Amino acid sequence: MAQAAAHDHHDEHHDEHHEHLNFFQRWVMSTNHKDIGTLYLVFSLLMFFIGGSFAMVIRAELFKPGMQLVQPYFFNEMTTMHALVMIFGAVMPAFVGLGNWMIPMMVGAPDMALPRMNNLSFWILPFAFTLLLSTLFLPGGGPAGGWTMYPPLSLQSASLAYVVFAVHLMGISSIMGAINIIATILNMRAPGMDLLKMPVFVWSWLITAFLLIAVMPVLAGAVTMLLTDKYFSTHFFDAAGGGDPVLFQHVFWFFGHPEVYIMILPAFGIISEIIPTFSRKPIFGYKAMVFAIASIAFLSFIVWAHHMFAVGLPLGAEIFFMYATMLIAVPTGVKVFNWVATMWGGSMTFETPMLFAVAFVILFTIGGFSGLMLALVPADFQYHDTYFVVAHFHYVLVTGAIFAIIAATYYWIPKWTGNMYSEFWGKMHFWNSVIWVNVLFFPQHFLGLAGMPRRIPDYNVAFANFNMISSIGGFLFGASQLIFLGVVIHCVWFSKKKATDRVWEGARGLEWTLSSPPPHHSFTVAPVIHDEELAHGHVED
Amino acid sequence: MKLDHRALETGQEQRLRRARRTAAIIGIVAFVVFVFSIGQMLWLQHHPQIHQHQIDSLMQ
Predict the structure, then answer these.
(1) Is there a contact between B26 and A178 if contact means CB atoms under 8 Å apart?
(2) Whether complex ipTM tops 0.95
(3) Which pLDDT score, from 0 to 100, does residue A6 have?
(4) Which residues pair with A498 in a beta bridge?
(5) Any stretches that span the bilayer, and where are they (chain A) (predicted)?
(6) Residue A211's closest CA among A169, A173, A257?
(7) Nearest residue on chain A to B43, judged by CA atoms?
């Protein structure tokens, strides 16, 4: 904090000072938003491949009916760890990394408001995930009761204490990240950068940060109660002691459903930056887009029990949660139609970020529609705990959140590094990803409708064909991501093609007024805002 | 006469001071949510009739 103020007095020395830092000082002691953003993104990529390797084990085991490669307990460990690593290790840190890199540049600030806390919130994560992943090597094995940690099953796990402590650490990291983002956006904007002139990505992160503040402590509370139930003889969720396991589900999903939106709202923000750039038009309905994000965030707090229709809720509650869930389709529909309207009549080009953004709009909408099907109480009784649910949330999270993160990387990496990536290999990555991800997840709808349950290592031979197709799609989708790794490595270290400051012809916003790569501290003097330079400078009332 | 330090602050220092205050307020809110989420369950444990009533209403 004080450091940022001090930096401000010594603007001219920033980049010289930065040159003299050794590796340890630059990366471990860093208080710079760009370096910490890079750390987050590298960590996220590592977790993406670790979580992906767990998914490969799952798909390999399910390649054919019968037990193939692993023991059932290990299979359950894989499904549990895949989810925990992908949600808390890959998707969330990736968005925090993107936020760290872009928010100060987008609002005209020199850095994040609380740079030392920024450092701490990143460096907690490697310890949290070392702790979590180490449980796989413990004598009792890792967690195997699913990422939702429902008692009483989760209480039987020997590694519960490790998992709970890891979740606490991740939660603390997320909360500190959220505090920093809110403090930066509300206080560090350049004079003239009104709230309703901010890029949609910044808006989406502001709202997401409030969601994090509201629900991460609830998760921390829920897992703390699990811990005391196991080790300190409390009976919060133990029916024999007067507790109630279903109460855990209520508390967990009060966190869990907003968590889904924590993973998708920044993605909405990213897509709302990319589509206008490559359509060479301002976004259609800027205010409506902001209000839609806020509405989705509000609704996320009153839909949690749609994950629990099968536990036996009273009819009134089921009807309430069904309609509340279906209501989310309204603001989400506003967003999808506004993206299409932005493209409509635009002078469109299809560079790799735009390809991923267009795929996002189409494939995320498929995930949204299957979500509407699951919102129907009578239908959910049939679909609950089947592969239909697996197909639904992977369309939302893989072709939604992860496609948006990949799109953002292609969009901003020339700005970050000063080098252009290989467009040919970017497109190769796109077409391989978009084809194989559908081969991977689309057949899972049919499996679910036919009644194949999720989280099982073996299945009826009737499901054999679709599972084999899904596994082939899985292996090739996984392999396609190695292209992404290659493109990123090439762009950072080997690319000869330099990026211009604006990078993309249609790009608007303060971040594009900086050099590529940008200086160590973004705006050491608050920029003078020219409305025509902003993506949303002329907001109509 | 007491010197008004705030009057001497630059715009950037002002923004940072406000940012620290915002961060403190949000941090306190997060902690209160954490305590409340456990506190309400503890309260239910010590009021078993109300807890039972809640379970009945959820499971009827």
Answers:
(1) yes
(2) no
(3) 39
(4) A419
(5) 39-60, 80-99, 120-140, 160-188, 200-227, 247-271, 283-307, 319-341, 353-377, 389-413, 434-452, 472-494
(6) A257
(7) A236
**Is there a catalytic annotation at residue A295?**
no
Backbone angles phi, psi at A453, to 5 degrees: -75, 155
Q: Which domain holds residue A53?
A: 31-533
pLDDT > 80? residue A127: yes
Pick from A68-82, A242-256, B4-18: least confident:
B4-18
Q: Is B41 on the interface with A (CB under 8 A)?
A: yes
Which among A111, A318, A380, A511 is annotated as catalytic?
Answer: A111
CA distance linking residue A418 with residue A383, whole number of Å: 48
3-class SS of residue A386: strand
Mean pLDDT, to the nearest integer, of A301-327? 93
CB of B50 within 8 Å of any CB in chain A? Answer: no
Cα separation values, A88 from A47, A83, A115, A265, Å: 9, 8, 22, 16
What is the total count of domains within chain B? 1
- Under DSSP, the state recorded for A534 is S
Q: Kindly state whether residue A156 falls inside one of the protein's structural domains.
A: yes
The answer to the question of residue A423 being in a domain is: yes
pLDDT single digits (tens) A285-306: 999 999 999 999 999 999 999 9
CATH label of the domain that carries residue A487: 1.20.210.10
Residue B5 lies in a domain: no
Is the residue at B35 inside a domain?
A: yes
Give per-residue burial for A411-445: e unless 16+ CB within 10 Å, then b: bbbbbbbbbbbbeebbebbbebbbebbbbbbbbbb
Q: Which two tokens stand for residue B32?
A: 């209160």
Contact between chains at A114 and B19 (C-beta distance less than 8 A):
yes
Give the model's pLDDT for residue A17: 56
- Chain A residues whose CB is inside 8 A of the B25 CB are none
- Identify whether B4 is part of a domain: no
Say yes or no for a CB contact (<8 Å) between B45 and A218.
Answer: no
Best of A107, A174, A175, A252 to mutate (most B CBs within 10 Å, chain B) = A175
Q: Does B11 touch chain A (CB under 8 A)?
A: yes
Q: Of the listed A33, A230, A257, A536, which one is catalytic? A: A257
Mean pLDDT of A17-30: 81
Range of the domain at B43: 10-59
Chain B residues whose beta carbon lies within 8 Å of the beta carbon of residue A184: 19
Report residue A449 as tokens: 């409708």
> In the annotation, is A395 catalytic?
no
Q: Concatenated DSSP letters for A136-204?
A: GGSTT-S--S-TT--TTTGGG-TTHHHHHHHHHHHHHHHHHHHHHHHHHHHH-PPTT--GGGS-HHHHH
Residue A55, both tokens? 């998914």
**Chain B residues whose beta carbon lies within 8 Å of the beta carbon of residue A250:** 58
Residue A370 lies in a domain: yes
- What residue type is assigned to position A140 of the chain? G
pLDDT of residue B59: 59
B47 touches chain A (CB under 8 A): no
Interface contact A222, partner B, CB < 8 A: yes
Mean residue pLDDT of chain A comes to 92
Among B27, B33, B38, select the one facing A225 at the smallest CB separation. B38
Q: Is residue A19 part of a domain?
A: no
Q: How far apart are the C-alpha atoms of A205 and A293, rounded to whole Å?
A: 10
Report chain A's C-alpha Rg in angstroms: 23
Catalytic-residue membership of A505: no
Q: Which of B11, B21, B20 is nearest to A190 (CA)?
A: B11
Catalytic residue list contains A332: yes
